[in-house]
Amino acid sequence: MEKKIGEVLLSVDHISLAFGGVKALTDICFDIREKEVFAIIGPNGAGKTSMLNVINGFYHPQEGEITYKGVHRKQMKSHDAAVQGIARTFQNVALFKGMSTLDNIMTGRIIHMKRNMFWQACYLGPARKEEMENREYVEDIIEFLEIQSIRRTPVGRLPYGLQKRVELGRALAMEPDLLLLDEPMAGMNIEEKQDMCRFVLDVNDQYGTTIALIEHDMGVVMDISDKVVVLDYGKKLAEGTPDEVRGNQTVIDAYLGVPHN
Amino acid sequence: MTEAAATEKLSQVLDTIPKLLLDHAKKRADRPANRLKDLGIWQTWTWSEVADEVRNLACGLAKIGFQRGDKLAVIGDNRPRLYWSMVAVQALGGIPVPLYQDSVAGEMVYVLENADVKYAIVQNQEQTDKLLEIKDRLPILEHICYEEPRGMRDYTQEFIHYYKDIQEKGSIFHSENPDFYLHEIEQGHGSDIAIFLYTSGTTGKPKGVVLTQDNLLITSLNCLAFDNITGEEEVLAYLPMAWVGDNLFSFAQAYVAGFCVNCPEGPETVMTDLREIGPTYYFAPPAVYESVLTKVMIRMEDAGKIKRSMFIYFMDLAKSVGIRILDGKSVSIAEKVLYGLGNLLVYGPLRNNLGLSRTRLAYTAGEAIGPEIFSFFRSLGINIKQLYGQTEATVFICAQPDGEVKSDTVGKIFPGVELRLSDNNEVFYRSPGVFHSYYKNPESTAETKDAEGWVATGDAGFIDDDGHLKIIDRAKDVGLMNDDSMFAPKYIENKLKFFPFIKEAVAFGHKKDYVSAFLCIDIEAVGNWAERQNLAYSGYTDLSARSEVYNLLQECVETVNSDLARDEKLSGSQIKRFLLLHKELDADDGELTRTRKVRRRIIAEKYDVLIDALDDPKQTHCEIESEMTFEDGRTGIVSADLQIREAERHKTQLHTRAA
Asked: Which homologous superfamily does the CATH classification assign to the domain defined by A1-85+176-261?
């Protein structure tokens, strides 16, 4: 079935980012469209995670502009990104290890809970109703990700692949418009990768979430992305559909290396 | 005739399951009938709600063209809606055909074709995809109905229906034709065919066992009386719906007695759900009890010193006292007090942790259960009993009455059952549960069931002094060795499998000079053992090739040998040579049946190189390459170089038992 890719959701315009003298990103431009699975690839140190952090509002680029949902973005705090509908997962799992799967995913609902701490502590009337609504949403996600059996298990005790899944669940709980995944398949075995791919595609399909992901596993990227951007040394090497990128000589050179005479 | 009057008339003769449903909906309308854990919370349906759900579904099926005599396949995990679909179909005079939900599409073709399945109700997208994959090969299959809408948005084919849409159609149909449903039920009788159950097929193609409403209902009634089962029970339905046991324990009996059937959230959550429900009546094959015991033991090994010694002390006490209490025999006051203390400190918490706190009655069947496992549960105060049966008998042939429970027999002859043994010790029975026929297979029917209704079980056994039946092996598997000693492979294999380290065993000895065996390690138990020995390993193949592991299993084999040596008849079949297989025996590779029974012939063909090596006393190792199916359906090749070990054999130690 043909996927409906919509308007530009986020546009990155001539972004440059430097830490002192180190140029992490130089003059990067691309658009992420609604309902797209967008992949950023590149060798180690290419600036992929920096790019994600810029999108996320965690790093502030020295030059260039970001337009999100048609609004030109000014200086922002990174928590504003969450309110604006951007959720992410991390390269190294960043969950609350001592809390259960359910509680971890519930933390993703915090931005949707309006009652203050006093109400929640009393757990009366409106706060209770609110929690029940949010819990239902979380349970839907638990079912969606097929993690019912670990609902009450502290995440610290789970295998890595499942922790990654829980982290995806927490990001989904925010009901994001844009989901950033930083190496969702890193360190997984084949079976876990297949599961994760299926979930990424299902999220994209069922919730209509736009997904921007960083990934090293080329097979995965080429199979599930609609569009790929290749970075190397902070510069954009190529952009296009997986097939276009695969055939691009500069990309091949960057990945395999070229002889220096 | 008004609806109430029509229901009244029907309830006078409750000879079918749909009629029983109407009766419960009237008499126990607000009692829970089914529960399903959905979105983390147990959802309950009362009997009156179930009656409505079933009626709407039945009318909906009739609306899309279901006729009397049509067959409907039911494929999925245990779900209330799937159970209801079986009742709905029976109400319409059709026949439900439950299939094993983990069969691959190719395996389903034969059954669906053989049973003339025209309609299918499946759980989810996975099962729908399987049916779509094989639909071209099934010209009769017309409609597919799915229960869970997830992922089904893009399935626009006309013959695919959503369960609730069908019910909606049914609800409208019912309001337009209010008499239709009751009229259909009225036409049903006890002698009607209730269900087709396909036997797993230890040999050859699966056979469709045809059972009637009478088979199910009379056997259920006998069982309720035998064990005082009431309408207040709680059971957890977690065994495959295609298996006769599930159909009797969590379907037919529930409709006869009116108790509540709980369905777990999914196959992985069974243990958690079991704890939450706390069933009063429980059925599990020996493998489940075994894995529970293994888990408890592993966790106790890792427990602190005080806890562990407390556990060991009280479990020893329970072994002598607990079993006697359960059997109603006398115990001294001191023992009672100590047992009470143990109950407070160990048994109670342990039962609670296993979800068996409220369990009044637990059954096991299918395979022999290890005496340690059996006495472990009984000593905890759980009334676990064995029964002997088969699909063709609607389960029950023999069962252990309360207070007369022995670990090595399968109990006394069940009420209503007649039993006799042939000259070669094969067990024959005749009962109200005896199956109608094998579907479209008169030759096999005639082979198994004679004109007077006696059925051959194919099992060899004998009746002991207390009137209990003891099963040794399949009658045809009992072989002769070259020196004419008896070789009962399953008996030996079961003895081996009673060790927690051994998951599967296959023994060879028929027409051979000595007995040899394949063993498969239990990766969980041996893995844990290896961890404690600081033995590093990379996976199953590596671990089972370790000489340390070989030493460990050699001890097990030699213990079995000394056990066999005690019996004059079986002493000759002590194991001489054995090897550890490099992969687990797997149903996906065709080595086991779906109920995890060893397929001897297939294994013998597949590993003939290994068997030759075992038979040749000069070989000390053997190379093997074998194909293996991964969980995602792809196949790969595993190769290994397996050692062969010799185990010590013992001289016959004649018992000084008074003859």
From this structure: P-loop containing nucleotide triphosphate hydrolases (3.40.50.300)
